[in-house]
Amino acid sequence: MEDAEEEPAMVVRGPQDTTALVGDRVLLKATYAGKPEPTVRWTRAGRVLKNDERTSITSGDGVSCLLLQNITADDSGKYDICVENSCGADCTYASVSVEGPPDPPSGSPCISPESPTSVRVTWSSSPYDGGRCVDGYVLEYCLVGSGVWAAACRQCHSLSHSVRGLTPGGRYAFRVRAVNALGASRPSAESQVVQMQEEDDESSLFEPRIVHIEPGLEFVTRYEVLEELGKGRFGVVHKVIEKRSGQKFAAKFVRCRTAKDRDKVQDEIDIMNMLRHQKLLQLAAAFENPREMVMVMEYISGGELFERVVADDFTLTEKDCILFMRQICEGVAYMHRQQVVHLDLKPENIMCHTRMSHEIKIIDFGLSQKIDPNKPIRVLFGTPEFIPPEIISYEPIGVQSDMWSIGVICYVLLSGLSPFMGDNDSETFANITRAYYDFEDEAFNTVSQDARDFISALLVKRKEERLSAEQCLKHVWLDPENHHQTVVLSTDKLKKFIIRRKWQANHQVRQVA
Ligand code: ATP
Ligand code: MG
Fold first, then answer.
1. Alpha carbon nearest to ligand 1 atom 18, residue
2. Which fold has domain 202-298?
3. Averaged confidence pLDDT in the chain
4. Buried b (16+ CB within 10 A) or exposed e, 123-159
5. What pLDDT digit, counting tens, does each position of 118-167 carry?
6. pTM above 0.70, yes or no
7. DSSP labels for 264-287?
8. Could you identify the atom of ligand 1 that is nearest to the CA of residue 281?
């Protein structure tokens, strides 16, 4: 035992350097040798450690343990242990490094408004990264008064982010969390409250998106269902509010009993995913339940076009009709460029964006189809008064089929009369097949020749000879600059037309349901 003799009288060995996560326990264990039994002292940064809630020290029989519980980032550092008795003393140490989520970003985020529905949020980095590098930030927002914080972006990789889809007129606050491999920090201080600008209407606006069907339970958690907006053959449409943003949407609930019903809705979703145009209703989300599918669409606050133009506070002139028909042609021209045919163009499916503006939106793509020029399609559906001759005779349809319906809509808008309407459907179909109509009614006395020419170029039996939507846009009648008359059109007949259509719609719904 020669070695032992060279060793000092007191020896302490032991504790290992340790890495731990916030909240963990750390045990530093040292062994010592020496008689008589020495006093053991653990210190950190010159301060003697004592037993307390989080710290316990036990020593005896040549072993001393320091147990640190529920550790925090502040517990990182060097831990010294010294043993001492009358014969001598010895010291050693170990390092503890504590890793955890980062500290919150310093200061509060800065907000700069970009539009009535978007702001740019900018923030600072965290003073301490938690021992692991920060790899992103979570940006959260709160609609003031709701008390709910939701993520606007879960993986921001820079120190600024543009938040879209906010509600015009809404008041919002923002905060940020820094994230590393071990988790997210506590939130930063909140930004100042920002008041979004008002938009001049309440129709919803949002970024175009590709919609995938989500589980129906999601719909219930994300939206609150409000009043009914309308009914169609296939669905009921309700106004809904997205709880997170307070934004309004329209949700169409479609009963699906069979797989075929579901496929039809899926087709409608696929078509809407293809159509990105201001004049065409946009889809925001879709959900499926065992017996029903829900399509969440942008909310259109202006109501159906025809109802708007017969309202007491609206005076309808031919120039208004030009402005409306032009927009219908713009939307339809876009669809046709994508090789999509609407196949259900009728007054109920043309809506006003807001009560105040002249802007329209085409809705309801439930019958729309993508056309393959090499594959003739025949269909057996539509709304009697608006369907073209080729559907009645079960001949191939094409994008030109929509142009016929546009001719009918235009005829009705200007006169309040339905050009092919017979006493029953078979009479109506016979009139359509013969392309039999005229402008004899006195309602046309005040309608310009250009308007009649426009209609005549659409209500043509052979679909190949009808004006295309693109050609319509170049037609002399659709150039509002060419039209200077301000004769007010009587809407008495149009009112009767609407009442009759409503009655028929209710009747049809009952038949199907
Ligand atoms: P259809 O019988 O015409 O095929 P449908 O069952 O496919 O009808 P839609 O035409 O899409 O249903 O909607 C029915 C009615 O609901 C519309 O005529 C309109 O009044 C209202 N509506 C539809 N979409 C919206 C919307 N996005 N915003 C406001 N109201 C809407
Ligand atoms: Mg409809």
1. 348
2. Phosphorylase Kinase; domain 1 (3.30.200)
3. 90
4. bbebeebbbeebebbbbbbbbeeeeeeeebbeebeee
5. 899 999 999 988 888 999 999 999 998 888 899 999 999 989 999 988 88
6. no
7. HHHHHHHHHHH---TTBPPEEEEE
8. 27
Question: What are the boundaries of each domain within the chain?
Answer: 2-99, 110-195, 202-298, 305-511
Contacts of 53 (CB under 8 A, 6+ apart): 69
Give residue-wise pLDDT tens across range 256-289. 999 999 999 999 999 999 999 999 999 999 999 9
Phi, psi (rounded to 5 degrees) for 123: -145, 175
Is the separation of the CB atoms in 329 and 276 below 8 Å?
no
- The number of helices, as runs of H, and strands, as runs of E, in the chain is 11, 27
252 burial via Cβ count (<10 Å: 0-12, 13-18, 19+): buried
Q: Does the structure show a pLDDT above 70 at 512?
A: no
Tokens 């259900």 belong to residue:
344
Long-range contacts, stretch 119-122, CB < 8 angstroms, 24+ apart: 119/162, 119/163, 119/166, 119/172, 119/174, 119/194, 119/196, 120/160, 120/161, 120/162, 120/163, 121/152, 121/160, 121/161, 121/162, 121/163, 121/174, 121/176, 121/191, 122/159, 122/160
Sign of CA dihedral 463, 465, 466, 472: positive
Distance CA 385, CA 424 (A): 10
Annotated catalytic residue within 90, 103, 129, 344: 344
Say yes or no: do domains 202-298 and 305-511 share a fold. Answer: no
How many residues belong to the chain? 513
Find out whether 409 and 418 touch, Cβ atoms under 8 Å.
no
Residue 162 CA to residue 118 CA, distance in Å, equals: 7
Question: Of all protein residues, whose CA lies closest to atom 13 belonging to ligand 1?
Answer: 232
Tokens 């039809």 map to which residue? 264
Residue 87: predicted pLDDT: 83
Single-letter code of the amino acid located at 22 = V
CA of 295 to the centre of ligand 2 (A): 14
* pLDDT at residue 511, as a whole number: 38
Q: Enter the CATH code of domain 305-511.
A: 1.10.510.10
> Which option is the CATH number for 2-99: 3.40.50.40, 3.40.50.10780, 2.60.40.10, 3.90.1580.10?
2.60.40.10
Question: How far apart, in whole angstroms, are the C-alpha atoms of residue 162 and residue 139?
Answer: 10
- One-letter amino acid for residue 162 of the chain: S
Who's near 484: CB < 8 A, 6+ residues apart? none
**Does CATH place domain 110-195 in 2.60.40.10?**
yes
Index of the ligand 1 atom closest to the CA of residue 348 = 18
Q: Which of these, 123, 183, 126, 190, lies nearest to 158 by C-alpha position?
A: 123
φ/ψ bin of 85: left (φ > 0), alpha (ψ from -120 to 50), beta (otherwise):
beta
Q: Of all protein residues, whose CA lies closest to atom 19 belonging to ligand 1?
A: 230
What pLDDT, on the 0 to 100 scale, is given for residue 364?
A: 94
Assess whether the C-beta atom of 363 lies below 6 angstroms from ligand 1: yes
